[in-house]
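REVIEWER CHECKLIST
Item 1: Sequence provided? yes
Item 2: Single chain? yes
Item 3: Sequence as submitted:
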Amino acid sequence: MASISKIGTRWRAHIRKASQTRCKTFGSRALAKSWATTVEREVYPLKSWGGSKSADLKRLKAEFGNDLAAHLTHERLMEAFMQMHGGGAGGVTISARAGYLVGVISTAKDVWRLNVPLEAAQEARNALGRLSAGFPR
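Item 4: Structure as written out by the authors:
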């Protein structure tokens, strides 16, 4: 992830990952942030997902629809996860889907800088951890 810092009257974008470092200065913070986002996508692409995760993400999309961010609350997620359980999904499956969802939302927030409610997904995943003992096997 990039760090953006002010150096005098200019802005520096600094990206570090493993042994690679990229750095450049700009006249504005917005330009530095834009460059950093572009370089992160080009130099450090996201890993591709496997078939199982892709299938689970398709199920989540079907469950939450296209307006995920607008309606994503802790209560809505818990309701959906409990419905999955009622439909036959086990605790491990539901926890995996919750983890995938948190990963997608985290990527949207951190990499693409979208305003998505990450805390709601994290709280729901944490609550599932407390409830998992109550899921019958």
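Item 5: Key structural point noted by reviewer: The two ends are 40 Å apart (CA to CA).
Item 6: Recommendation: ____
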